[in-house]
Amino acid sequence: MERLVGAKAPDFSLPMISGDGEDFGVARLEDYKGKWLVMFFYPLDFTFV
User: Fold this and answer.
1) HSE on the CB side for 3, CA within 13 Å?
2) What predicted TM-score, i.e. pTM, was given to this entire model?
3) Among 6, 20, 31, 34, which one has the highest count of C-beta atoms within 10 angstroms of its own C-beta?
4) Helix (H, G, I), strand (E, B) or coil at 46
């Protein structure tokens, strides 16, 4: 498996919700250009399993 730490992420945009659950928006990778960014992915969040 290829190591992804330190690799550049492809451009993306995705729907998001604020931490307080009140506001919706769109997150774009370009909004964080020049800043450090840590991305977390939880594939089972918001699913009804």
Assistant:
1) 2
2) 0.50
3) 31
4) coil
Cα angle, residue 25 at apex, residues 22 and 30 outer, rounded to 5°: 140
Q: What is the pLDDT of residue 45?
A: 62
In tens, the pLDDT along 1-49 reads: 677 777 788 898 988 887 788 889 998 989 888 888 777 766 666 665 5
DSSP-assigned states of every residue in 1-30? ----TTPPPPP-EEEEE-TTS--EEEEEGG
Rg (CA), the chain: 13
Type of residue at 23:
D
Quickly tell me which residue has 């450090």 as its tokens.
36
